Amino acid sequence: MEAWVRGPDGPRRFRVARFRVPASWTGDRERDRRSLWLSGPNGEGAMFIGLGLHPEDLGAFLDELARRTPASAPSPPEPYDLPFLNAALGDRATRYVVTGKMAGEMVLIERRGVILLFAAIVHPSAWDSVSGWLPDVYRSVILSDGAP
């Protein structure tokens, strides 16, 4: 799957994020092409992926996550290690554990001016299974310049 975003100011800047998700998790890209909502094949829960160029781009995404999962909340942030990140260039990843009525995690990947938010929020009984393949999703991320 892929998502793309165009910068609002100055010259047109496009960033494309490509990543792998299990084929059984299906959904549609949102109309703005900056985000995706996927559903588990057996009603496990949902995965959200959002792409932005500025931290304020994430506000609407986080509001929608809170609206859809009101009985769950993220933990304080903790660093998350990904092999393709270069801290000297300002790259970083942050993980938030989601607890409450649903289980899951949010991982925020910041790399070369692009912010990619993954949120997997599922029924607690499905978390062991889902958490087993989520690191592969994060490691599959490729961010590049591009055009729609």
Brief overview, please?
With 148 residues, the chain is of the alpha+beta class. It is 16% helix and 43% strand.
Sequence stretches where pLDDT stays below 50 over 5 or more residues: none
Structural class, judged by helices and strands? alpha+beta
Percentage of residues assigned to helices: 10-25%
Percent strand: 35-45%
Write up this protein.
This protein has helices at 59-68, 127-139; strands at 2-6, 14-18, 26-29, 35-39, 45-52, 72-74, 78-79, 92-100, 103-111, 114-122, 142-145. By secondary structure, it is α+β, with helices and mostly antiparallel strands. The protein has a single domain (2-145), classed as Mog1/PsbP, alpha/beta/alpha sandwich (Protein Transport Mog1p, Chain A, 3-Layer(aba) Sandwich), CATH 3.40.1000.10. Strands 3, 4, 5, 6, 7, 8, 9 and 10 form an eight-stranded antiparallel sheet that branches. The longest helix is centred in the C-terminal third of the chain and has 13 residues, at 127-139. The radius of gyration is 15 Å and the shape is globular. The model has no long low-confidence stretch (mean pLDDT 86).
Topology (elements, then pairings):
Blueprint: E1 2-6, E2 14-18, E3 26-29, E4 35-39, E5 45-52, H1 59-68, E6 72-74, E7 78-79, E8 92-100, E9 103-111, E10 114-122, H2 127-139, E11 142-145
Antiparallel strand pairs: 1-2, 2-11, 3-4, 4-5, 5-10, 6-8, 7-8, 8-9, 9-10
List keywords for this structure.
16% helix, alpha+beta, Protein Transport Mog1p, Chain A, single chain, 11 strands, three-stranded antiparallel β-sheet, globular, 148 residues, eight-stranded antiparallel β-sheet
